[in-house]
Amino acid sequence: MRQREDVLSGGSYGSASDPRPHFGLGQATKVNDIEVHCPSGKVEHFIVPGVDRIVTITEGTGK
After folding, report:
1. CA triplet 3, 16, 46: central angle to 5 degrees?
2. pLDDT of 17 over the 80 cut
3. Which of 15, 21, 37, 50 is least surrounded by CB atoms within 10 angstroms?
4. What is residue 42's predicted lDDT score, i.e. its pLDDT?
5. What secondary structure does DSSP assign to 31-54, as a single string?
6. Would you state the pLDDT for residue 11?
7. Whether the Cβ atoms of residue 54 and residue 20 lie closer than 8 Å to each other
8. Which of 45, 48, 43 lies closest to 31 in space, CA to CA?
9. What predicted TM-score, i.e. pTM, was given to this entire model?
10. How many structural domains comprise the chain?
């Protein structure tokens, strides 16, 4: 299964939305990896330590 979500900054004056993408996995119990396309054009892959958690990724630290 593949899922995609775009993260955009900005919004209305004096307000903001949660910038974290959320992916529902259904019955899946693992994620193979996360592929991120950065604004710089770089594509990185990140290993996920498990499901049902918040994962923080930083540009330049993936493979």
Report:
1. 35
2. no
3. 15
4. 92
5. ---EEEE-TTS-EEEE----SSS-
6. 66
7. yes
8. 48
9. 0.70
10. 1
What distance lies between CA 17 and its chain's CA centroid? 15
Q: CA-to-CA distance for 58 and 46, rounded, in angstroms?
A: 10
The Cα–Cα gap between 24 and 52 comes to 9
Q: C-alpha dihedral over 47, 52, 21, 43, to 10 degrees?
A: 10
Mean pLDDT along residues 40-59:
90
Could you tell me the maximum CA-CA distance found in the chain, to the nearest angstrom? 40
Q: Which two tokens stand for residue 62?
A: 């993936």
Both tokens of residue 37?
Answer: 């396309």
Q: What is the mean pLDDT of residues 44-61?
A: 89
CB 34 within 8 A of CB 48: yes
- Domain interval for residue 40: 1-63
